Amino acid sequence: MVTNALHAFTRKVSRLLPAKQVVTGLAERLALSVDASFYSKTPALIVYVHNTQTMQDVIRLANSHRVALTFRAAGTSLSGQAITDQVLVMLTPDWQHHEIIDEGKQITLAPGIIGAKANRLLAPYKRKIGPDPASINSCKIGGIAANNASGMCCGVRNNSYHTLTNMTLILADGTRLDTRDAESVRAFRQSHAGLLAALSSLAGDVRSDSSLSERIRHQYRLKNTMGYGLNALLDFTDPVEILTHLMIGSEGTLGFIADITYRTIALPQARQTGLFLFSSARVACEAIPMLSQFHADAVELMDTRALRAVSPLLTPFYTGSIRDGNVALLIEFGAASSQALDNVLADVNAHLAPLIAQGDMHIMQPFTADPSTIDALWHIRKGLFPAVGAVRDTGTTVIIEDVAFALDSLADGLDALTALFTTHQINDAIIFGHALDGNLHFVFSQSMDADAIARYDTFMQDVATLVTVKFNGSLKAEHGTGRNMAPFLSHQWGEDGVAVMRRIKQCLDPAGILNPGVILNDDPKAHIRDVKALPAVDERVDKCIECGFCEASCPSSHYTLSPRQRIALMRRAQSLEPAARHEVDSATSSLVRDSCAATGMCAPACPVGINTGDWVTTLRQQQAKHGALARFTAQHYGSITALARGAVSVTKTLSDALGSTVTESATRSLNRLTHHRIPVFIQEISGAGDAVSARTAPRPDAVYVPACPARLFGDKNSEHSLTDVVLQLAEKAGLTLVIPEGLNDACCGQPFDSKGYPGAGDITRASLKAILDKATDNGRLPVVMDASPCASTWSNHCNGKTFELSEYLLSFIVPRIKITPTDAPVMLHVTCSSRQSASGNALRTLTHLCSTHVSEPDDIQCCGFAGDKGLLLPDLNKAALASLREQVPPGCQQGVSNSMTCELGLTRHSGVRYRHIAFLLNAVSQPLTR
Fold this sequence. Notes:
By secondary structure, the chain is of the alpha/beta class.
């Protein structure tokens, strides 16, 4: 029956949505079978929804066919609330609308906006949203609200529940309610009078039950996300307000949050942070009420094993040993002014002084306002989760749970949890948390064999009893109930509290189609069902904890798969039957290997530092089928490049004659027919480049290497080539650059490496090395390369120093010229290779020297052009730059970067002409008067 209903739903939703937004392929479904929790369920169907109206239609269809839906935003949920074996509803990148209200005092946000982006939108107003989860750089507003995520500085009062002012929601029957629209509210009160009356009646019943009411008040004095937000039934009398506040923390089980309006929080204008080591948990916890009294913004607790796990990060601040029982507090204060902050900290230090005198506290780092030191201190705290993930055995998963105790029980609760770990022989567990709220997280690795899962079950039963019976605390402080805590709901709330929650669910989702099994689950063993396996795939990626932090940085996330999804697919594929494995293997080439940009932008975002691009490059090597052709190309590099240059010239001539649209369409067809082997000729290619001509001088200052892209593609719309401009700048500065002979036959090898042919890359590298060793006098002279990927690659192989061009311009040219910056707006894109080296900061500094109005979209980490992929897989480039055009400021006509191929894609998808920063610097500079 369920299968028939799903088939009927699939047929109808396929008429509603474009084909690419309805996904039935097993490979894609396996790739999206995980969230950040330790559970896995393979969805029967995935639908990508792009706007509110379509979401209403999809929900109505599901309700009419009794098909279950699970909504996923970023999938960083830790308790299994974003997985399903039925229909997984994903948001397309279109959900980015926002509105800043009353000079930033409120902000309306679509569910697809990443939390950190919301704060960037508010930064000019010196405000932020209240929730600040640790995953804020990856998680999205929809998930933040649906899970009532909080964080390190959020506390109890600045979460989504308390800062909510308005909401647009869609109920299980497909009805849309926008509380900012008076007419929408009026119509809803009329059409859903019965529902609102039921909520009012339920609220009255709860208020009349003094025992339950007091239990609710107690739980919400703590951080609590266990079950539905029953406090809404006490805090509000208007049933519309009750409804919108019940949606917060409901984990997609009561409806879909289409947007949310937050009351925002003022950013402190002065900030200081310190790190302090206490002799015991009790001494540390006794200091917390004082810190709360002085309104500390954050107090992060780290237990003994946590401190030992991150000992290398502690070295700059503390070289002593961490003794058994030691606990550290990372403390941060903020204020409206430096003077006000100094006054507060004087009082705080006075209260801490006796502890130092008694030997109960050691100052690892006194309060400091230095931004780099503050960042280093927070890096210690944020390094705790990966400290366990990085050292766990292959095949094990990482379990992270969070509980909350009343402050006067915090020390006892911490000691009791530590004793539980000993009892259950969990030897790698660490405890840390938001001490101001009595919120403790514990992290440990967990094997997934049957015996280990049984032990985990016993452990969780003991945790539930310890937290709820002994300490009357919260089993879920901020991670949501999910599947992991659903069986323990009555431990915290009692059967009467759970009965109220069931009535809420019945009122809002009577057919039970929204995220079944989450929050309310009748299976007492739900927390140990569907536990995901993490088999070994490759040592480069086996430490992946499937958290999804990589996805915001990945250019292919909205094209094919993200790094997490590539790894998840390869892991899940290992357990398939032969027929299913064959189906998955046939899709793996395009999903895993070919469509990855392999630029490594996932590594900085990954808690355990995985560079999925390196792994994909290895896969390409293993599957490489054209080694002989690659070697031939490398051995005849100059001739092949000349032929390619000729092909560009001929195609450009045809394009001028036939029209760029016709040429692009024809080459796109050839690209599809040849399985992406023939490149698409995009209209941004204005012509062929020129072969490199040698340039000599008796006493050169550096050796200049025009990179391969500049030899292949020329800018026929410009009077001068990039090479000409670089030489002009050097002349302005009184410096001499030489260009060695033979460059046309040489290359840094990066194009071959990225395609899985490092042997061919070695051939061209050897040629380049011989040329440059001679030209630089074995490394005495520096080398300057004008494409950032080439400079990054060559720096690992050269003798002497290699400068990416923007670095050289900033360090050697700028001090010798006069710059008059333009007031015209300029778009800036920092390439992947520059972001991973010092040249990124050089490029930024240089651009700001050249223009007083610089815009750098900070949600685009990689343009997705990735060498020639922008021509072979143009949709990768399109997906990566989908948000670029809307971020171009009014009147902007120019953009800058430091890689010619990237500049082609940036120009294409922005409507602004991007060129190397050298062009702008040349335009706004002149020689110094000597």
